[in-house]
Write a structure and sequence with these properties.
Nucleoside Triphosphate Pyrophosphohydrolase; 15% strand; alpha+beta; 2 domains; Endonuclease III, domain 1; 41% helix; globular; six-stranded mixed sheet
Length: 333
């Protein structure tokens, strides 16, 4: 069965794989950047960021020496901003080493590099025999093995990791890992898997016992919550009022925001400019944007007048970016 899975999966991948920019290179730097960007982010969303990021930071030296504001501005909209900061920390460490580490252990020791990223880069860029285990792979393997345990439990993940290592084609580990991830992303999808198109359907135990739509099993998600936010758009002589999150902020340190109503207690609200929804994990925010007037800044010094022409150069939070697009102050990218 193992030989059949390897042979069928690789043959399918060579014929059906998507043409993605990071699959056209063997440069470990570019492969590493793609793997970090793809964490918890859809492929379609990553592609323009990936191409723009590599234009700005084409190599390790450029990334290592970049100004933080420039780096965050290039990452703005991708979320999970610690990824960008860790990329730069790791780039600086690699520059000091003098070459990109090819060994799994050395990769795993870089800032922000976990088991998955180390295995992906080691196998794809250097041919290291290390199995990857991301969400797509876990789903595929849980169906192949008809795993009935909670996929979030460490015991189940340990069992699936053993299976991944067993199935790994050690002659073509990078290609095999990508094939398994591609299968989960395009065919063995979370709901209504397309079993008729699956190259390993005959080896799939979940399909054999009729559980392909029930597996994998997963613990209940936390209940979703809804909140409202009220942002103010205050302009004065070609400037707009913003505030920057401090360096020690738990979320999005260094990013710029529109002020909330309570931050400018003396502001005079003129009109509601519009509203939009924005979701973060299990919380959905209804964000209402108001045009307001205020000539003097509060005394706490947190707010700053920023020239509107420079908005495109700042790392704006996704909420701020959506609000400014709604107001027509910046263009949607």
């Amino acid at each position: 069965m193992i030989h059949e899975i390897r042979r069928n999966l690789l043959a399918w991948y060579r014929e059906h794989k998507r043409d993605l920019p990071w699959r056209r290179t063997d440069d470990p730097y570019r492969i590493w950047i793609s793997e970090v960007m793809l964490q918890q982010t859809r492929v379609a969303a990553v592609i323009p960021y990936y191409e723009r990021f590599l234009t700005l930071f084409p190599d390790l030296a450029a990334l290592a020496s970049a100004a933080e504001q420039e780096l965050l501005a290039a990452w703005a909209g991708l979320g999970y901003y610690s990824r960008a900061r860790n990329l730069q920390k790791a780039a600086r460490a690699i520059v000091e080493l003098g070459q990109f580490p090819a060994d799994y252990g050395a990769l795993r020791g870089l800032p922000g590099v976990g088991d998955y990223t180390a295995a992906a880069v080691a196998s794809i860029a250097f041919g290291g025999a290390h199995a990857v285990l991301d969400g797509n792979v876990l789903r595929v393997l849980s169906r192949v093995a008809a795993e009935r345990g909670d996929i979030k439990s460490q015991l189940v993940r340990s069992r699936l990791r053993v299976l991944a290592e067993t199935l790994l084609d050690r002659r073509r580990p990078g290609e095999f890992n990508q094939a398994l991830m591609e299968l989960g992303a395009t065919v063995c999808v979370p709901k209504q898997p397309m079993c008729g198109q699956c190259p390993i359907r005959l080896q799939c135990q979940a399909r054999r016992v009729g559980l392909e739509n029930q597996l994998p099993l997963s613990g209940a998600r936390p209940a979703a919550s809804r909140r409202e936010r009220h942002l103010l758009a205050i302009e004065n002589r070609g400037r707009i009022l913003l505030w920057q999150r401090p360096p020690d902020s738990r979320r999005m340190a260094g990013f710029w925001e529109l002020p909330e109503r309570e931050q400018v207690p003396g502001a005079e609200v003129v009109e509601a400019a519009g509203r939009f929804r924005h979701s973060i994990v299990n919380t959905t925010y209804l964000v209402v944007v108001y045009r307001a007037a205020q000539n003097r800044l509060p005394h706490d010094g947190a707010l700053q007048w920023v020239a509107k022409r420079s908005l495109g150069d700042l790392p704006l939070s996704t909420t701020a970016k959506k609000a400014l697009i709604l107001l027509g102050k910046i263009n949607e990218q």
